[in-house]
Amino acid sequence: MSDHRSGLTVGTTLPGLSRADVDRAELRLAPRILRTPVIRSDQLDAQCGARLWLKAENLQRGGSFKVRGALLAVEELAAAGSRGVVAQSTGNHAIAVALAARAHALPTLIVLPSDAPPAKVGRIREAGARVVFAGTTLAERVAAVEEFRELHGYDVVDPYENPHVVAGQGTATAELLKQAAAQGVRLDTVVVPVGGGSALAGACLAASGHGAAVVGAEPEAVPAFTAALGAGPVTVGVGPTIADGLRPDRIGALPFALAALVAEQVLTISEEAIADGMRAALLVARLLVEPAAATALAGALEYASGPGRGTDIGVLLSGGNVEPALVAAVLAGPADLAHRAVAS
Asked: What is the pLDDT of residue 230?
């Protein structure tokens, strides 16, 4: 576990973006996204000794919260006369960009790692995007995106550095805070998964002025944010992990600039705990989520067990685009799961 606490007060001005950007994003997105439900589970609450508020973005359009940021970013580009878009992703951002671009009839080229999950590849192609595979590292995908940008004159929809993407992702946390408040509850903490960092940065923006602490959860196999706390964004080695959506080997510069100032803590989560989180979501909360979302749930269960953590903890269940074979392996147990983890 990695622990990072900021001495900044709630409402501190954040680099380049503010809570107002999230508020504006909410208004723009309201007609085009689902206001996903917040799920409660007495059994999970009893397990961790706190009340968990599970934001079910696995039920969102495109199967993840990533559609929020993609819709905003692509809309801006389309209004500026874009001739097409290109994006790199481990999966969910790509699905979201493809769906957003289709709405504007923009040609779309997506760069994925060579070992991207087939279910996510299929959803991207169903949305009408062209898919190209480029290695397994973030640097390889970014290089390919730059090559295609120059070749086709397309605009890049970056999953981490685009401010519209970050503000859009923050609307999921903003909704969660409001949905809890509508039931008379002020959340003490929000736990979100950490890959490239847009979810964490967006959550920090959304929680500004609210008083809720923001906690990140990343796989032990890909400790990109944890490493950045000591040296700034750096490329880390990637071990085998089932959390394919959290495999970027370097935290985004913009998300890090935001989250490093505000996030209270970053937890590193073992593969066993991620699998346990998937099982808990499915068998206890009756929610089918992907390992990235399960990482946040596992982080919340760990965080809640500590002293003085508060009584009400929100959890961003970021997506539900998961391979059926992986679900079967998780349910079968560790012996069948070991060979399903993917390493870059």
From this structure: 86
Whole-number Å distance between alpha carbons of 315 and 227: 23
3-state SS, residue 128: coil
* pLDDT given for residue 231 in this prediction: 87
By residue count, the chain amounts to: 344
pTM: 0.92
Which residues does residue 189 pair with via DSSP β-bridges, in sequence order?
Answer: 213, 313
CA distances to 60, 217, 223, 231 from 2, rounded to whole Å, are 30, 9, 9, 14
* List of E strands, 101-232: 108-112, 130-133, 155-156, 189-193, 213-219
271 φ, ψ (degrees, to nearest 5): -60, -40
- Tell the burial category of 32 from Cβ atoms under 10 Å away from its Cβ (0-12, 13-18, 19+): middle
- Asked if residues 226 and 325 have their Cβ atoms less than 8 Å apart, the reply is no
Q: How far is CA 329 from CA 239, 278, 279, 323, 326, in A?
A: 19, 11, 11, 10, 5
Per-residue pLDDT reduced to its tens digit, 121-158: 999 999 999 999 999 999 999 999 999 999 999 999 99
Which residue ranges in the chain fall short of pLDDT 50?
1-13, 343-344
- Percent helix, strand, coil in the chain, to 5, is 50, 15, 35
One-letter amino acid at 68 equals R
CB atoms within 10 A of CB 146: 14
Tokens 């696995």, residue?
Answer: 58
For the chain, the first-to-last Cα distance in angstroms comes to: 22
Cα–Cα distance, 269 to 131 (Å, whole number): 31
Residues 6+ apart with CB under 8 A from 269: 217, 218, 219, 220, 277, 295, 298, 299, 302
Nearest to 158 by CA among 255, 233, 239: 255
**Which amino acid does the sequence have at 75?**
E
